[in-house]
Design a protein that fits this description.
single chain, Rossmann fold, six-stranded mixed β-sheet, four-stranded antiparallel β-sheet, 11 helices, 23% strand, binds adenosine-5'-diphosphate
Length: 286
């Protein structure tokens, strides 16, 4: 594309100069008034320090908001989101520096038990991964383990409530004893969301939750995300800029491990502050 042509595709008239590509300090408002989580100078290393995947990222996750993480493949989106419930602890040779607070408590403190932490900060993965159990037991499993239910009727009530909130109840209420793996991809993903919700989380992390789904199943999940936002803080990694603009209120743009820009989603897509963000949203790389 020649430069004249690319100018035409640029965002509407701006009143500011873009921050140049070389400047890798985060631009935009990193903090919110009601942070559910606050990340301070988070860096992540793989291979026992050999690879730095995230470089001193500071960012708030607000309550009752969806924050989208976008950026080219390999920029560190998944690595970053996995820090938020210490999922990187399971990767050998991975080290996380910095501080991540959940309601003011650093989740990397020595006295934090990751099992209840991962119930409070639940995660939905790219590929739906129901347990090889019945639909009912997929949802009931974690609440039983965490001691949230003590008898059959409590369990039934919680399973029903979770499936209703995940928008799946009507489709599965007559076949709760059948295997979760027998559902369609979109239904399986909603089952995984029901499973996450069942342990009463406060934050839900979603790592490309729709990338294995067709457009109809994707639309259903996106509607669900909007509903869930009323009760939870949600962080979603997506490779789809359209999805980020549909579902999120704030967007974080990552590039080679740096958080380049963070701001209201509309601003990021219509009037970004950084040249790298502008290049990405206009499709110049990715
Ligand atoms: P994204 O989600 O934006 O595609 P990732 O977080 O998956 O990016 O990856 C960021 C960087 O960290 C990449 O260079 C990737 O190769 C590296 N990386 C991710 N996971 C691992 C791992 N388990 N071991 C070593 N390097 C990894």
């Amino acid at each position: 594309m020649d430069s004249k042509h690319t100018d035409k595709t640029a965002a509407p008239k701006r009143s500011h100069r873009l921050v140049p590509k070389e400047d890798r300090n985060t631009v935009g408002e990193k903090q919110v008034e009601n942070p559910k989580m606050r990340c301070e100078e988070v860096s992540v290393f793989y291979d026992n320090g050999g690879t730095k995947a995230i470089n001193s990222v500071s960012l708030d996750i607000g309550d009752n908001e969806v924050i989208a993480m976008i950026g080219p493949s390999g920029c560190g989106k998944s690595t970053f989101i996995r820090c938020l419930n210490r999922m990187n602890d399971t990767i050998e040779g991975c080290r996380v520096d910095g501080r991540i607070y959940l309601d003011g408590k650093n989740i990397y403190d020595r006295d934090v038990d990751v099992v209840p932490l991962r119930a409070r900060v639940g995660m939905v993965f790219q590929k739906p991964n129901p347990f090889p159990k019945s639909i009912f037991d997929n949802v009931a499993y974690a609440p039983r383990i965490h001691g949230l239910v003590t008898n059959k009727s409590e369990t039934e009530e919680l399973v029903e409530k979770s499936l209703i909130r995940a928008g799946l109840w009507n489709e599965v209420k007559d076949r709760l004893t059948q295997p979760g793996t027998g559902l369609s991809g979109g239904q399986q993903q909603r089952l995984c969301i029901a499973r996450t919700i069942a342990v009463n989380p406060e934050v839900i992390l979603m790592d490309e939750p729709c990338s294995a789904l067709d457009p109809i199943a994707t639309a259903i999940i996106e509607e669900l995300i909007e509903e869930l936002r009323q009760e939870y803080a949600i962080a979603i990694v997506t490779h789809s800029m359209q999805q980020a603009s549909r579902v999120s209120q704030r967007t974080a743009y990552f590039h080679l491990g740096d958080l380049i820009e963070i701001g209201p989603t509309e601003q990021i897509f219509l009037n970004p502050l950084h040249q790298l963000t502008q290049d990405y949203i206009t499709g110049r790389f990715g």
